[in-house]
Amino acid sequence: MCELLGMSANVPTDIRFSFTGLMQRGGRTGPHRDGWGIGFYEGRGCRLFHDPNASAESHVARLVQSYEIKSKIIISHIRKANRGRVCLENTHPFVRELWGYSWTFVHNGQLKGVKKLPLSFYRPIGTTDSEHAFCWMLDQIRERFGNVPRRAGALWDFIYQLASKLRERGSFNFLLSDSKHLYAHCSTNLSFITRRAPFGRARLIDAEVVIDFEKETTPKDIVTVIASRPLTHDEEWIKMKRGAFDVFIDGISMGE
C-alpha cells in the first residue's frame, strides 16, 4: 500500500519536517520503494517533483529536503506498486487542468474494475487504477458543472458522492486539490493534525529530527498536516473515520 501526505495552511509554509519523515518510509523504515512525488501550489500553478526511485535513496528527494519551498497547499505520495509497473508516468501526484486550475491527486488503495468506467475528456498517461479513477472523477465534475459552481458546497457534495461510488470498488484513501481547497477522503487509514498557537515541539517517528514550531511560526499561523499514518511522537493526531470526507481551507477543516 502507498502512503499519502498533504498540508493546508493559512500562510505559505515549509513542509520539509514532515516530508523528511515520509521519505524514510520509502525504503528505509517502510516498504514503499516504487517511486514518490510532491506538488507545491503557487497560485493556480503547481511545482512538481517526481522520481520512480525509492524516496529514502533519491537524490531528488534530498534536493527537496534541502530546498525551502513554502506553499499553502502541498500534496505528496510514496508508492508501493500493486497496479502498473514502476516508472515515471505511474508516479503520483497526477495533475490535470479543469476550469483554468491545476488539480492534483494522490491515492492509496486498490480499486477493482475501475478501468471499466468510461472516460470522455481526460485520459490516463500511465497504467494505474489511481490515475484512471482521477480522470473519471474529473470527467464527472466537468460534465456535472459547466464552470466553477457558485456554491462551493455543491462541488464538495458531488466529490463526496464520487468518492463513495469508487469506495465500493475497494480501498480509496485520497487527497485532491484544486489550488484553493484540499479534499481528503478516508477509506481505511488517514489521520491529521492541526497546529496553531501555542506551538510546541515535535519529534519525527521515522528519523531523529526534532523541531520547535514556536521558532518557525507566528501566533496567527494555522497548519494542518494529513498523512496515512501519524508522522510524529508527542502530538495528538486525529484518525479519520472510514468513509469520512473533509475539506480544508487555509488549514481549517470545514467539518469543524
Write structural notes for this entry.
With 256 residues, the chain is of the alpha+beta class. The chain contains 5 helices and 16 strands. The protein starts with a strand and ends with a strand.
List the SSEs and their pairings.
Elements: E1 3-14, H1 16-24, E2 36-42, E3 45-51, H2 59-66, E4 70-78, E5 94-98, E6 101-108, H3 129-144, H4 152-167, E7 173-177, E8 182-185, E9 191-196, E10 201-204, E11 210-212, H5 213-216, E12 222-227, E13 232-233, E14 238-239, E15 245-249, E16 252-253
Antiparallel strand pairs: 1-4, 1-12, 2-3, 2-4, 5-6, 6-7, 7-8, 8-15, 9-12, 9-14, 10-11, 10-13, 15-16
Quick structural summary:
This protein is an alpha+beta fold and 256 residues long.
CATH architecture: 4-Layer Sandwich
Low-confidence stretches: none
| Main beta-sheet strand count, sense and barrel state | 7 strands, antiparallel
**Distance between the terminal alpha carbons, to the nearest Å?**
29 Å
What is the radius of gyration?
A: 17 Å
CATH homologous superfamily placement: Aminohydrolase, N-terminal nucleophile (Ntn) domain
Please give the order of strands in the largest beta sheet.
3-2-4-1-12-9-14
Return the structural class: alpha+beta
The helix content, as a percent range, equals 10-25%
Q: How many distinct beta strands?
A: 16
Helix count equals: 5
- By CATH, the topology is Glutamine Phosphoribosylpyrophosphate, subunit 1, domain 1
Summarize the helix and strand pattern as letters: EHEEHEEEHHEEEEEHEEEEE
Strand content: 25-35%
Index terms:
16 strands, single chain, Glutamine Phosphoribosylpyrophosphate, subunit 1, domain 1, 7-stranded antiparallel sheet, 34% strand, alpha+beta, 256 residues, 21% helix, 6-stranded antiparallel sheet, 5 helices
